[in-house]
Amino acid sequence: MADFNLAQLEHISQLVIFQINNVNKLMGKAWYELELARSDLRELIEIHEKWEEEKGLNQAHLK
Fold first, then answer.
1. pLDDT digits (tens, 9 = 90+) for 25-34
2. How far apart are CA 47 and CA 53, in angstroms?
3. Residue 58 and residue 62: Cα distance in Å, rounded?
4. Biggest alpha carbon distance in the chain?
5. Phi, psi dihedrals of residue 58, rounded to the nearest 5°
6. SS in 3 state form for 35-51?
7. CB 61 within 8 A of CB 52
């Protein structure tokens, strides 16, 4: 019976290690995707501000 419990512990610990590694990979991908989104948002804001300036809509830049 002790061998069975030891085998269960080993199996569960391997699963936990696998799951933690998987979470780590997913977190890395999530941070990468977040940085891509932030970069795109900065670019979108910049382009929108230029468009406002061209159309004379952005009074803050005209003062």
1. 999 999 999 9
2. 10
3. 7
4. 82
5. -95, 95
6. HHHHHHHHHHHHHHHHH
7. yes
